[in-house]
């Protein structure tokens, strides 16, 4: 398998998206269809209308979208979907913040599933690159003054010691990304990982994505999602966000760019919790934010660098305000928020 040839832009070439029923996966399918790709999309149950309806109704789906059943825990179940594809976007990951057995339901399946997908890619000679979706929770730090870049990896000891809300998600993403990059090196597969922060904005799924729920928890006051927002501050006292279209554009960019290799942090905007609350309340004064913050936290010391990605030529398109606006407007469609 070549480690230097990327997928040419669009031109109807087939690519595979795992986890196409989720937030990123579904929007990535939409983006790829808009860019002229033929898409093989995997779902655990492709016959389930709650998962497939948002995909089958997309422009171009009738001509260039095929749905496949695949399960992360089933060896070889991705072979059919990946067959004939030039590129693979591995987005699928098990996630259940209410899991009572995260070791066996989240962490182990995330690692095994990633390796199952990559072993399928190795068996299929047409694949030229795999882009794996990780998370900034795999590059987080306890240092408030940290400069976070691709060299930073989350300490598993710290995760297990603190066990903050959603700790198992951070562990699963850290271990799965490490496993993907190591497998690529050992097996000669061109594996690129993209490392995003909280993803928000519009969505086409029939349920509200957890990351959008977390982003808007200052408005809704939901303690579960606010707890998640607090737990996924990748640098203490900060909030890092990216628009879903920007992260999907970055996926396609890294698939297409011939020089892409290794790990890429992709963080659109980083701000402090007090400043984030001020932006929301300034744009939506009708919603009362009851959470209290230490205003001294407004002097953010840490930073999250996307310089490696920017040096390759990628450009962000969406502002923090646009992320908030799109999230609120789509959230309103499925809730009583008004």
TrEMBL record:
Is-annotated flag, keyword Metal-binding?
no
Can you tell which superkingdom this protein's organism belongs to?
A: Eukaryota
Q: Which UniProt keywords apply?
A: Oxidoreductase
In terms of InterPro entries, this protein maps to: Epimerase_deHydtase (IPR001509), NAD(P)-bd_dom_sf (IPR036291), NAD(P)_dehydrat-like (IPR050425)
Where does the record place the NAD-dependent epimerase/dehydratase domain? Answer: 15-261
Indicate whether Membrane appears among the record's keywords. Answer: no
Instruction: Cite the Pfam families for this sequence.
Output: Epimerase (PF01370)
Q: What is this protein called?
A: NAD-dependent epimerase/dehydratase domain-containing protein
Can you name the source organism?
Picea sitchensis
The taxonomic lineage of its organism, from the top, reads: Eukaryota, Viridiplantae, Streptophyta, Embryophyta, Tracheophyta
